[in-house]
Amino acid sequence: MQVEIKIEKDCTEPKIIVLTDKITDEINSIVNKLSEEEVNVIAGFKDNTVELLEPSNIVRVFASSGKVIAETTDGNYTLRLRLYEVEGRLDSQTFVRISNSDIINLKKVKNFDLSFAGTICVCLSNGTVTYVSRRYVAKIKQLLGI
C-alpha cells in the first residue's frame, strides 16, 4: 500500500482520497478507522473531584437509584451520563450490555456460571457478582460461542 501526503496552503480541512481498483476488507477497515469519531472521555465524580476514567480500569457501569455508577479498579465513580451514552462511548468489542441497568468489561470477567436456569451469573475480577437478564442471554451465549 502506498501512502502519499500533499501539503497545500489553500486547504482548510484535511481531505483523504483512497484510490483503488476494488473494495477489499483492508479498504473497508481503513475507511472505518478514518470515519470513527475521536475517543470520548468519561468523567467520574468522587468526593468533590472529577477524574477522567480509563476504560481499561472500568470493571462495569450500572444504574442504581437513578444514578449511573462506574465501578473501577480504583473505586466507584458517579457519572453524569445516561447508561446508553456511556455504552456509546465505550468500545463495543470490550464492553457489553448484560441487562437494562448493567454494562460489563469482558476483560474483567472472571467466569460465567451457567448453572442458573434461564440466566447467567457473571463473576467479575474484583469479586462483584451480577446477572445477565433473560433478554440478553442469547446475545451473551452467541458472543461466547455457546
What can you see in these coordinates?
The chain has 146 residues and is α+β, with helices and mostly antiparallel strands. The protein has a single domain (42-144), classed as OB fold (Dihydrolipoamide Acetyltransferase, E2P) (Beta Barrel). It has helices at 25-35, 83-89, 134-144, and strands spanning 42-46, 49-53, 58-64, 67-72, 75-79, 95-99, 102-105, 109-113, 120-124, 129-132. Strands 2-1-5-4-3-7-6 form a seven-stranded antiparallel β-sheet. The longest helix has 11 residues, at 25-35. The model has no long low-confidence stretch (mean pLDDT 88).
Report, as a whole number of angstroms, the end-to-end distance. Answer: 39 Å
Order of helices and strands: HEEEEEHEEEEEH
**Assigned CATH architecture:** Beta Barrel
The CATH C-level class name = Mainly Beta
Radius of gyration: 20 Å
Bulk shape: flat
Q: Total strand count, please?
A: 10
The percentage helix is: 10-25%
Low-confidence stretches: none
The domain tally reads: 1
> Strand share of the residues?
25-35%
For this structure, the CATH topology is OB fold (Dihydrolipoamide Acetyltransferase, E2P)
Query: Count of helices?
Result: 3
Specify the CATH homologous superfamily: LytTr DNA-binding domain
Q: Report the sheet with the most strands, covering strand number, pairing sense and barrel closure.
A: 7 strands, antiparallel
